[in-house]
Amino acid sequence: MHYEARVQAVRTYYAKKFGRKIEKKEARTIWLAAEQYMQVIPWWCASHRDCWEYFVSRWCDPEWQKTHEACRQRRLKMPGPAHHQGNRTLDEYAASWSRAYEGRECPPLMAWALAHKGKASSIEVDYNPEDGPEAYSNATVHARLQQYTEMAREKHGPEWNPSTEELDGEIIMRIGGGKKHGRYWIGDSTLNIASTPTLSEIRARSSSSAPPIRPRPSAAQIQFDQAQAQLREEMEAKLQAQEAKYQAQLMEQQARYDARLQEQHARMQEDLQRQMQMMFHQWHCGGMQPPPLPLPPVGTSSPS
């Protein structure tokens, strides 16, 4: 919350001091002095000045600014926005989507997937388990959904539909390597912390047949793996196209070869017929009888 509060404070200060309206994108790159932040205390914090002073002290701390900037740069490297929930919880996003879609149910995993596709009010935002990485604002979401679905079906059976069931906290802990920076790999705001086991609890009760606890891949690793998969698909498609072209060329060559053979055979038949006609004509003009036809081999029928 205090991240957006700082951005809004910058926008309010510029509007009041300079009469200039600035967008959030620009405001995020502007840093005010402590006394400037104190001139624009928001209404919701007006009766808690000490809380606002605490926020301001953090914003003006060079170490905090350095960490904040490093995180901002990492976010800028993301191929798309983190999500489309805005300042709403995932439950609020799901309720908004259900209202927009005439009361359709929106279970937790489905809501999490949709929140990474578009706004809840958009008529084009719907869940399809067959969608590829390009359907999501961040391609890493597709990898997480695949990992969760695979392990969920490994645990609950091949007919288990994760999009209509409640989130399985243990599976999320296993595929995400536990919590990182206090966050779960999937559905962070919807999981029941009390009922979700810790990694140590999972290890203590796991058997050899249980799904393994996987190290959480970084966003860069997921993007690299997806780029490799896409490259393999492109190479396979290219090889298939080349093979199809090669087979088409072979068929074309075979067709031309067969056509030439037929043409040569037809010419040979014509030449043979012409020679026979000339011979019969010469014999007839010379008063000669044509020789008898050769007898057929023993065991074969005579020509009719």
UniProtKB/TrEMBL annotation:
Coiled-coil residue windows: 224-256
InterPro entries the UniProt entry points to: EN-1/SPM (IPR039266)
Protein keywords: Coiled coil
Highest rank taxon of the organism: Eukaryota
Gene Ontology process terms (BP): transposition
UniProt keyword Coiled coil, yes or no: yes
Protein name, UniProt field: Uncharacterized protein
Organism (species): Eragrostis curvula (weeping love grass)
